[in-house]
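REQUEST FORM: STRUCTURE PREDICTION
Request ID: SP-0412
Submitted by: Lab K.M.
Chain count: 1
Length (residues): 216
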Amino acid sequence: MPVPALHGVHKRTLLRDNVFDSIRNAIVDGTLAPGERLKDTELEAWLGVSRTPIREALLRLERAGLVIALPGKATIVAPYDQASTVSAQQVVAGLHELAARLAVPLLTEDDISVMDEANTRFEQALQHADVESALRADDDFHAVFVTVSANPVLHELLEQTTPVLRRVERMRFGSFAARESVAQHAEIIRLSRLGDAEAAGRACRENWLSLGLAGQ
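STATUS: Completed
RESULT:
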């Protein structure tokens, strides 16, 4: 299993969420390729943590559709599966629509400014083909609705369903087509300023459905 060169990059006291994020990111960016066997000992050496948080992270990644546990054999990185990805996309789009509908009536001008600033960073990152920064800015943009909605179940469901889309987002954010999202974000901001929760929700849903999965 190929792992990044750095070893022991996390302290023993690292929160399990960071272990999850590290393995998830390595799967999404291709460091851990589809079909790759995930060995506890190698993950322990890379992350510098015990087996317990690693097993917990792998269970979460299995629920997210990024790894497959073969009973009595091994845990491997899940291959890309279009049907599963489309299913996840539909759920994620609906959840973000709900988040917007709940959040828009509660937004402050500061919240909208955060969205505007995130979209500016998103556009700049796309112009420089900086996929990592584009992903972070896009997350920051959509996180405003999720946070303001104050619905913890939304957050939990998105944590479970969003990771499988990361591989698609990474490909899209590295292409010219992603620039359509800048205008879509701007429209979401405009509708939010107007206080139109229904329209903002629909716009969010369309934004997530615009990832461009073949066969849709």
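NOTES: The first strand starts at residue 67 and ends at 70.
Reviewed by: T.R.
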